[in-house]
């Protein structure tokens, strides 16, 4: 049974114990990300994610990695637009070690100047890698064209000039402001002794000083209508088309959107894959995906193709959107998508890291955490009418933006607008 607790320092803990596993995955999640950075501190969250591995008052960078790896575990971290995560997965008998090292990184990092200067080069190389990856760069440009000037459209890592300008003093102040108990959730899944784990968390995470903690203040983005091409140095065209909308926050709507996107574009048996790739041979990659934030959501279709095929691909995609209204998903399509998702949930039961991340993300998106059986019940309750309502609400021509990015020749390609 999933249980939630308030730690003595004010942080939240969400714990999912499982007796029939020898593993535990535990994460410290900071409820802020690149979206929440001031203009002059772009890239700070991502840079901190790197720097917290570079040594503490108690351990060198080598010791942080070695002490976890010698027991068969691994540490990892990532930063997003609204979240920053540091987590460890290891044999459950070593749970105290995971808590000790994660909290040490979180609270005692040195942010040494020599390490900081070296890591600047690492992050700048990471940024350059994105510049050389058309799918990643194209998605960033798509968001900028849709949410012109909004923090959600920024690159998570910041730009090269932002990274180069970071100072130790400013980074330390940013860490002290953002990485606070009021802005922290601990999630864990696996074999655990809950009282012992809570006791160690309470002993390891310090009580905050008087004055409270950081709370993000967010303004939703406004969509800018955009339908354009951006030529670059690459050979293929990367097409991004989709819409942004305000999510209702209802679990029923979340699962209806999940079922719709699955049957339309999130699998090899989906309408999108079968039509654009299998039947027409217009592309290698094609899929849809969903992205949820605290105050907005995205639904996006991606495909890459030869520049000569771009116009035909868009016409075929227009036809598939039209067919959603003309031939709404039938009962068997809905059941097949539910079956696929149900199987994914069941298989994920064996992966403690997936479960640890699931309970945190569900908490952030909905404010609730469902047991897996409850999730299956909500998923199974989705009907064909629910999916058709998603189509009618979302799949309307005026809702869509489009970016065709990549080949220099795309500038000469006609990009027909949807007319379904």
Give a quick set of tags describing it.
Cytochrome Bc1 Complex, Chain A, domain 1; single chain; 2 domains; six-stranded mixed beta sheet; alpha+beta; 420 residues
SS content category? alpha+beta
Task: Provide the spatial order of strands within the biggest beta sheet.
Answer: 1-2-6-3-5-4
Q: What is the fold named in CATH at topology level of the largest domain?
A: Cytochrome Bc1 Complex, Chain A, domain 1
Q: Spell the H/E element sequence.
A: EEEHHEEHHHHHEHEEHHEEHHHHHE
**How many distinct helices?**
15
* Radius of gyration over C-alpha positions, nearest whole angstrom: 23 Å
The amount of helix comes to 40-55%
Strand content: 15-25%
What is the straight-line distance between the termini? 47 Å
Task: Count up the domains.
Answer: 2
State mean pLDDT (0 to 100 scale). Answer: 95
What is the CATH architecture descriptor of the largest domain? 2-Layer Sandwich
Beta-strand segment tally: 11
Overview of this structure, please?
- The protein has 420 residues and is α+β, with helices and mostly antiparallel strands.
- It has 2 domains: 3-204, Cytochrome Bc1 Complex, Chain A, domain 1 (2-Layer Sandwich); 227-412, Cytochrome Bc1 Complex, Chain A, domain 1 (2-Layer Sandwich), CATH 3.30.830.
- The chain contains 15 helices and 11 strands.
- It has helices at 44-51, 61-69, 95-108, 113-131, 134-146, 160-164, 168-178, 194-204, 251-265, 271-279, 310-326, 331-348, 352-366, 372-380, 384-394; strands at 3-6, 12-17, 23-30, 74-79, 84-91, 184-190, 227-231, 237-245, 286-292, 297-305, 401-406.
- The strands form 2 sheets. A 6-stranded mixed β-sheet has the order 1-2-6-3-5-4.
- The termini are far apart.
């Amino acid at each position: 049974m999933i249980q939630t607790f308030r730690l003595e320092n004010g942080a939240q803990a969400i714990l999912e114990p499982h007796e029939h596993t020898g593993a535990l995955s535990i994460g410290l999640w900071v409820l802020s990300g690149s979206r929440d950075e001031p203009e002059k501190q772009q890239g700070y969250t991502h840079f901190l994610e790197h720097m917290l591995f570079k040594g503490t008052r108690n351990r060198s960078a080598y010791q942080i990695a070695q002490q976890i790896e010698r027991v068969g575990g691994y540490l990892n971290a990532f930063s997003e637009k609204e979240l920053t995560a540091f987590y460890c997965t290891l044999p459950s008998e070593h749970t105290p070690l995971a808590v000790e090292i994660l909290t040490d990184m979180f609270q005692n990092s040195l942010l040494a100047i020599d390490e900081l200067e070296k890591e600047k080069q690492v992050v700048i190389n990471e940024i350059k890698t994105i510049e050389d990856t058309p799918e990643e760069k194209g998605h960033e440009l798509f968001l900028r064209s849709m949410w012109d000037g909004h923090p959600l459209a920024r690159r998570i890592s910041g730009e090269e000039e932002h990274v180069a300008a970071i100072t130790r003093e400013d980074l330390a102040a940013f860490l002290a402001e953002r990485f606070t108990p009021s802005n922290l959730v601990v999630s864990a899944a696996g074999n655990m002794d809950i009282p012992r784990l809570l006791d160690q968390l309470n002993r390891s995470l310090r009580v905050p000083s008087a004055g409270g903690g950081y709370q993000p203040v967010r303004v939703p983005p406004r969509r800018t209508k955009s339908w354009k091409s951006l030529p670059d140095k690459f050979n293929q065209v990367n097409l991004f088309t989709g819409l942004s909308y305000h999510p209702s926050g209802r679990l029923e709507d979340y699962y209806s959107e999940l079922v719709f996107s699955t049957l339309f574009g999130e699998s090899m048996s989906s309408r999108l894959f079968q039509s654009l790739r299998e039947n027409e041979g217009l592309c290698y990659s094609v899929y849809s995906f969903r992205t949820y934030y605290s105050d907005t959501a995205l639904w996006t279709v991606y495909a890459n193709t030869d520049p000569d095929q771009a116009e035909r691909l868009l016409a075929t995609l227009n036809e598939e959107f039209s067919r959603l209204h003309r031939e709404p998903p039938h009962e068997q399509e809905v059941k097949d998508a539910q079956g696929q998702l149900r199987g994914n949930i069941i298989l994920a039961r064996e992966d403690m890291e997936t479960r640890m991340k699931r309970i945190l993300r569900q908490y952030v998106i909905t404010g609730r955490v469902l047991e897996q059986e409850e999730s299956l019940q909500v998923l199974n309750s989705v009907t064909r009418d629910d999916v058709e309502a998603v189509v009618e609400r979302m799949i309307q021509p005026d809702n869509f933006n489009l970016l065709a990015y990549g080949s220099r020749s795309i500038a000469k390609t006609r990009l027909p607008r949807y007319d379904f």
